[in-house]
Write a structure and sequence with these properties.
It is a single chain. The protein is built from ten helices and seven strands. The chain is an alpha/beta fold. The protein has a seven-stranded mixed beta sheet with strand order 3-2-1-4-5-7-6, with helices on both faces. β2, α5 (93-106) and β3 (112-116) form a beta-alpha-beta unit. The longest helix has 15 residues, at 43-57. The protein is globular. 43% of the residues are buried. The structure holds the ligand Nc1ncnc2c1ncn2[C@@H]1O[C@H](/C=C/CNC(=O)c2cc([N+](=O)[O-])cc(O)c2O)[C@@H](O)[C@H]1O and magnesium ion (MG). The ligand Nc1ncnc2c1ncn2[C@@H]1O[C@H](/C=C/CNC(=O)c2cc([N+](=O)[O-])cc(O)c2O)[C@@H](O)[C@H]1O binds at residues 40, 66, 68, 89-92, 95, 118-119, 141-143, 146, 169-170, 173-174, 198-199.
Length: 214
C-alpha cells in the first residue's frame, strides 16, 4: 500500500519547508501541488484573497470547515494575532493526522484548534465545548453540498452575529449553486464575488464573501 497524496504533501513539507516558518510551509505546498501533483488546497491565487480578507476582518474567533492537509489553516493562522483562535473541523482521521503535523511544522499550533468530526455534529456544540459566542469569520471549504445546511445550522445555533463574515471557496468550480442562491438572495446577507481561478489551474473559480446582517 503506497502513500496517500496528503502523506506525500506532508513529506514534501518536512523535507523542504523551514520548521516554524508558516509561509515556507505554504510556499512548499503550493510548489508541490503546482509542479508535482494537484491537490484541493485553496492555493496561492485564491489564498491571496483569503489573506486580504483575514487581514481586513482581524478575527478573534474564526472557523474553518474542511481542514484537509491544513494548507489554509496554516495560511490563515500565520495572519492571526497571538490571542486569536482558529477552530478547524475535519472528519477524515487520516487527513486530520496529516494536518496536525503540517500545523505543527509551521509552528502555528498555539492559534489552531483542530476538531476531528463532522461539522453537523460539532457546530451545535461550539458554545458549550469551546466557549464560542459567535464567529467573526468562517471559511467554508468542505463538501460543497454541506455549505448551505451548515450555514443554516450556524444561524440556528446563534453562532453568527451582525457583521459575521462567511467566505466560501469553490463557488464556481466545483460550484455551490444552492449556497450561492441562498446568500445572494437572502436579505440577511450582503454578498460579493471575488473572481479568481481554481487552484494551480486556469479554470475560473472564486470566493464568495457574505456579511451576515442579523
Ligand atoms: N461535514 C464535514 N465535516 C468535517 N469535515 C468535512 C466535512 N465534509 C468534508 N470534510 C472534509 O473537508 C475536505 C473536503 C473538501 C471538499 N473540497 C472539494 O471537493 C474541492 C474540490 C475541488 N476540485 O474538484 O477542483 C477544488 C477545491 O478547492 C475543493 O475544495 C476533506 O478533507 C473532507 O474530509
Ligand atoms: Mg476548496
Amino acid at each position: 500500500t503506497g502513500s496517500t497524496r496528503p502523506e506525500r504533501i506532508l513529506a514534501a513539507v518536512q523535507r523542504k519547508a523551514t520548521k516554524g516558518d508558516a509561509r515556507s510551509v505554504v510556499n512548499t505546498i503550493d510548489q508541490y501541488c503546482r509542479y508535482q501533483e494537484w491537490a484541493m488546497n485553496v492555493g496561492d491565487e485564491k489564498g491571496a484573497i483569503l489573506d486580504s480578507i483575514v487581514c481586513e476582518v482581524k478575527p478573534s474567533v474564526m472557523l474553518e470547515l474542511g481542514t484537509y492537509c491544513g494548507y489554509s489553516t496554516v495560511r490563515i493562522a500565520s495572519m492571526l494575532p497571538p490571542n486569536a483562535r482558529l477552530l478547524t473541523l475535519e472528519f477524515n482521521p487520516a487527513y486530520a493526522a496529516v494536518a496536525r503535523q503540517v500545523i505543527a511544522w509551521a509552528g502555528v499550533e498555539d492559534k489552531v484548534v483542530l476538531i476531528e468530526g463532522p461539522s453537523g455534529d460539532w457546530i451545535p456544540k461550539m458554545k458549550e465545548e469551546f466557549g464560542v459566542t459567535s464567529f467573526d469569520l468562517v471559511f467554508l471549504d468542505h463538501w460543497k453540498d454541506r455549505y448551505l445546511p451548515d450555514t443554516k445550522l450556524m444561524e440556528e445555533c446563534g453562532l453568527l452575529r451582525t457583521g459575521s463574515i462567511l467566505l466560501a471557496d469553490n463557488v464556481i468550480c466545483p460550484g455551490t449553486p444552492e449556497y450561492l442562491e441562498y446568500v445572494r438572495g437572502s436579505p440577511r446577507y450582503e454578498s460579493k464575488y471575488f473572481r479568481s481561478h481554481l487552484e494551480y489551474t486556469r479554470v475560473e473559480d472564486g470566493l464568495e464573501k457574505s456579511v451576515f446582517l442579523g
